[in-house]
Every structure is written in structure tokens, then in C-alpha cells.
Amino acid sequence: MYHSSKDRIIRSREPVGSYRASIFNKNSFLCIPNRKRSRYDGYFVKAKKLWKILDEIRFDFFEIKDADKIVKCKNSMQLFFKFINISFFIDEPTGALLFESNTDIKMNFLFDIRNAFDQRIWGRHYEVEYLSDNTIAIHFVKKTDTREDSTQGQKEFEKFVVIKYNGHAVSNQRWIEQEYEYDIDRRSPEYKRHVFSPFDINATRLMIATGDSLDEAMNKIKARYKLFDKIKNLATDFEVERVSRFEEVDFAYASAKDSLLSLCSKDCMVAGAPWFFEEWSRDEAISLIGLIHSNELELARSYMMNILKNVYYNGKVYAKLGEKSHFSIDALPWLFNRVSYMIRFSDKKNIADYFLTKHFISLFKGSVINTADLINKFLGKSHMIYSLPHETWMDSTYGNDTREGFNIEVQAMYLYLNKLAYALTKDEFYKEKEREMRTEVVNNFFNGEILYDNLNTKLIRPNVFIAYYFYPELLSHLQWKRVFNSAIKALWLEWGGFSTIDKNSDLYTPFHTGEYPESYHRGDSWYFLNNIAAIAMYKLDRTIYSSYIADIISAGTKEILWMNSVGSAAELSSAGTQTSQGAFNQAWSNATYIELIKEISKEIK
């Protein structure tokens, strides 16, 4: 496996298990596994919803897993098989998929056109039309079926796919059953599915475009196919900023930026691909820091304003914006932290007067004050903030582990909020609230060595690093060192991360259990939290904790470049050994890696 930019190329020091040759783009993505397949592999397009188009492309004479070399470069990847090499590209403006090879190759296309999360098997209708000029049009219609639905034969939606190629095609219409071993491991049914193979194509070059109408798909093909070579050049136009003396860190940093932006549209940032394709308020708020460091300030500001306009009467926002599910108690503190950072960032860049409009600043100040008042009114118990199940980022439940009650990072976040409210208003009420709350939190959570995660369970968890990140004033410098040392002793994983629960706990689960929540927040190591922990350790004492910080950077860099979906930061790892699991491309994992490298870039040059 190799990564390439305009002027540099790096290669993997050693193969790292199963991986995906992947391209993530804001309008589409392609994932090709070298081993175990998932129903979330293939070619997907983004059009309001996430739509799957292709499940697989099969080739005569070779399989993807047998590639001698793979080279990843921005919106492209090349695969080499002895004397044959093939390339995939994604056209950024349209999301169209391009293919090229150095010799005529027979390809079998397996289509599975559907909403990415719709697993129904009945009522799928394909019509294939062979047009002139080496062009094929596919018309797909999804109809209801009483074997799965309440009605029969009602059209739900239609999609059009157009393929243009420079060879010839042979019809072979048949259904083929696919098995998804990766999903079996994740305990994520369904594990088998029939997909449609309408034809084989022999060609050295082709393009696939989609649309809600035939005209839309055809217009994309007509406009873009003639620009094939230009699109190839743009797809490989990858700049790698020198942020350190380590090339792998430089490439991972650039790749994380690219992967984060692939999850963004003009309306929102989705939490991750493929299966977190919604706007999660907490994930988006945390990930805004990555947009700021990518100089996407206009985009960041528009996302910020959208969240600021969605504060509910109780001082919270819904975990999924636009969907009345459970609330997130920590999304707004993360948001206010990111807005505050962007204000300081704009001041340093001398663009504050232009960028930070009076309306934006007024909305921010009003939301901080309003949220502080609402939280104090509705949620304050004994001067501390109470959380319901599913409201914190550790939102899975297993056994009696719900995290209901008083949680340390939430207390730190709302101490920070009162501090921020005082800074904005100079109203002594908030300063007094901060003082009362700090006293109560220290008295209840700190035993001299350990900062408890939750007052009900008194477990050790890595949320102490988030607490320091938000409110280092909670404890003295020496007290924080004791807390960090206790956390490291209980949680540190030798491969370079933190367990989400004390390794001596009966709930500790060393290996990822997929969609079954046993390990999710009871062992699994989350890349975003490892990055936050490294930032916290760096700020507290970069010398004493240097080896842990270095190991976290090394593990995160390795995961982005050489594991699972190469070039993108995944969601999490097993605790027992480093893996790359969960969502293939996770926003806050990318964003906090960017933040971590930016924070310490002066030290690693």
C-alpha cells in the first residue's frame, strides 16, 4: 500500500490486516475491500440521502485482494497486478465514478441500487437499455411489496444510472447472492443479499453517473466524459503540508483533512460514513475544529449558526439535528468551545472584522447566556449537572452501565460555560455559580488520587481528559498529574490508546463486539478521545507524558494510512489489540487528529 502526493510518495512498512481501497468525496465514495466484504462496500452517491449504486465490480483473471501494489492519492487509487494496472477516480463536482486500465479488461458489474440503510429485498426492478455510442442506461424502480410492506406495487422512488465506455458490452442479466463476512463479524445483519448483474463490459475506460432522471444522469456523462483526462489530473492533485519531520504524519494530516471535508455538504456535516450518515450535533460540534484548521471558516460558521438556532427549551439540543430523538447534554459546550476558538483564530489572522458579523457574535453570546440560564434552571441539582441515559457521548447501555447521574466531563463543561458566561457579561451571578459548582464537584468527584467518572459507579474512565480539556482550573497542577497517572495506570493500552473503562472492571471487554453494545463504551478505544487525551497531556506536562503522546500519534497515524479504509480515520479500535473498526470514515476522529497535530506541530518538526 502506498500514498502519493504531487511531489512525494510513502509506502507501508508492513501490511496491516484487512483494509479497504477507498475514495471518499463530498458527493460519493467507493470502498473496495481486500478481504472481508460488507454490504457498505461498493460505490455510493450522496443526494439528500445516501444511495448505494454498485455492490462490486468483478474482473477476469485477477481479484482485488491479489493486488501487488495499491497507490492512494486524494480522489484516486491505482491497483497493480503484475503487467496489469487499473485506476479508479471520482469526479469531485458530480460524484461520477471513472475507471481506466492499461489493457482491455472484462468487468462484471453487480448493482444494488437502494437507500443505503434499506435492506428490503422485494420490489426491486431494473430496466437496461443499450444506447448508441457505447452507452448503457439503467432505470431502477423500487416498488412496495406485501411480503415486506403494507401495500403492493406502489412506486417509492426511481434512480437512473448511465455508463459510457470505450469497448463493448454483453448482456447477462442474472441475480447473484453476496455474502458479507465483515458484517457477520460486526453482528450486523443481514449477512446475505441478492444483487443484480445486468452485463459484462470489456473496456479500458468507462464512467458511471447517476441521477433522479435519465436527463440528469445523461447530462453528467455528456459533460464530463470528454474531460476524462482533466478529471484524472484533478483527482490526483493532492497537496501535503509539511507539519512535522515525519512524512507519515504529514500524509495522515493531509488525508484527515481531505476525509473530513468529504463528510461535509453546504447544509451540514455528517458524523461518519457509511452508517452514521446523519447530522449528529455533538459529532459536528467537536469536528468544527478540523474545519477551522482547514481554513473552511465560512462552512464552519454556517454549521455553528445552524446548531445555535436549534437549542431546545431545556438548554439542550437533540443528538440528531432535525430528528426528535434523545438529547445531547454536551453538544452545546463543545460548540461554544469551538466558536470561542474560531474567534481567537480570526483575531490572529486579522480577519475578525470581516468574518465575525455582528449577527453571529450576538447569536453566540445570546446562546451562551441563555443555555447557562436554562441549564441552571432545569438541570441543576446540588450545584451540579445531572445527565439522563444516552445524553453523554458514551450513549450505549449494557447491563446497569447507563451513565445516568453526575458525570465528570459534563460538570467540567458547565463550569466552562459559567466561566464563559461571566466573561461575556461580567455578571457576578455566573462567577458565583462557577465557584459553588467547582467546590461541589471537587468535594464529590476527587478523592486525592482519582477523579471519578460518575458518582453512582465511581469508575475510572478517560473522560477525565475531556474534563481537563474544558476546565483545567478544577484542580491544581499536581492534583491533575495524580489524576492523569491514575487514569493511565487503569486505562492505558500498550498499542497507543485508552480503554473506555478500567481494565480491572468486570465490564471491561477487550475485543470489539460490533453492533452488540458490550464493548462499545466498556473497552473499545475511540480515536477521537485518544487525540483529546494526548492534547490534555501535552498541555499539562508535555515532558512527563511525551511517550504516551508519541504512542497515540503513532497509532492514529498508522490507523489513518494503513488500516481499514486507507486514508481516513475510523471510529474506534478494540482495546486488546489495535484495530480499525466502526465507521470507516469518522468526522471527529479526523478532526481531533488534525487538532492534535496542529497543537503540537512545533514540537514534532
Report on this model:
This protein is an alpha+beta fold and 605 residues long. It folds into two domains: 2-235, Beta-galactosidase, Chain A, domain 5, CATH 2.70.98; 247-600, Glycosyltransferase. It is built from 16 helices and 27 strands. The strands form six sheets. It has a 16-stranded mixed sheet that branches. The chain has a three-stranded antiparallel sheet with strand order 19-20-21. Strands 16-27 form a two-stranded antiparallel sheet. β7 (69-73) and β8 (76-81) form a beta hairpin. α5 packs parallel to α7 and α10 (408-425) runs antiparallel to α11 (428-445). The radius of gyration is 25 Å and the shape is globular. The two termini are 25 Å apart. The relative contact order is 0.10. The mean pLDDT is 94.
Topology:
Blueprint: E1 2-4, E2 9-11, E3 19-25, E4 28-33, E5 42-47, E6 49-59, E7 69-73, E8 76-81, E9 84-90, E10 97-115, E11 124-131, E12 135-143, E13 155-165, E14 168-179, H1 181-186, E15 192-211, H2 214-224, H3 228-235, H4 247-261, E16 272-273, H5 281-293, H6 297-308, E17 317-318, E18 327-328, H7 331-348, H8 352-355, H9 358-378, E19 380-381, E20 384-387, E21 405-406, H10 408-425, H11 428-445, H12 463-470, H13 477-491, E22 492-493, E23 497-498, E24 525-526, H14 527-541, H15 546-562, E25 564-565, E26 572-573, E27 585-586, H16 587-600
Parallel strand pairs: 1-7, 3-25
Antiparallel strand pairs: 1-2, 3-4, 4-5, 5-6, 6-10, 7-8, 8-9, 9-10, 10-15, 11-12, 12-13, 13-15, 14-15, 16-27, 17-18, 19-20, 20-21, 22-23, 24-26
Helix pairs in contact: 4-15, 4-16, 5-6, 5-7, 5-16, 6-7, 9-10, 10-11, 10-12, 12-14, 14-15, 14-16
